[in-house]
């Protein structure tokens, strides 16, 4: 069996949640190296819900960063992704999953004629302008930053792993993380990257030993399936090589 390492660059809690959700048969076939490239830092935010009819969450981090800062009071929370909707529901919001991407959320909210004013409780760094697009389309939305995403360097163990040239599968969940990751990688790094979406794959460089797999859908279930697919491929390649 191939000696394969899953290199997890998500914030530690999210990375551990992803690994725990993998099938047991898959977890036993890989080792895991945690090297978070983002640290989630709450910011001083005053959340006033007195004049809004609901909120928007685009990540679990948005939900967790508001805990203790406000009371949901039965308000609807429009969410990107099942994990975000589940977290919002557990926090007391009337959660509605509106799609797996910000684009899907916008289109679904407009199609369902969502009514504002709404509050987008977001991170400092976002892709696109949800509040601006919805407001321009007639649904008033204001964005409020409730957490920051501080970039971190690769850990020493991750750097050693990359430089040793072992078999590495690196799931990438955001374009910003992917860009930051490859700024720290040597050009000859041997990597098998799985990008959550075309947007995540866009900043990936052209490197001789880099292979890129794109998820069919930008969700955790598809990422897990692609991890298993890439792992099976690596094992077949190794077995074929050993038989020659």
UniProtKB/TrEMBL annotation:
Residues 31-207 form the Tetrapyrrole biosynthesis uroporphyrinogen III synthase domain. Gene3D superfamilies: 3.40.50.10090. GO terms for biological process: tetrapyrrole biosynthetic process. It holds the Pfam family HEM4. One of its GO terms (molecular function) is uroporphyrinogen-III synthase activity. Signal peptide: none annotated. Coiled coil: none annotated. CDD domains: HemD (cd06578). InterPro entries: 4pyrrol_syn_uPrphyn_synt_sf (IPR036108), 4pyrrol_synth_uPrphyn_synth (IPR003754). This is Uroporphyrinogen-III synthase. It comes from Sedimentitalea nanhaiensis. The lineage of its organism: Bacteria, Pseudomonadati, Pseudomonadota, Alphaproteobacteria, Rhodobacterales.
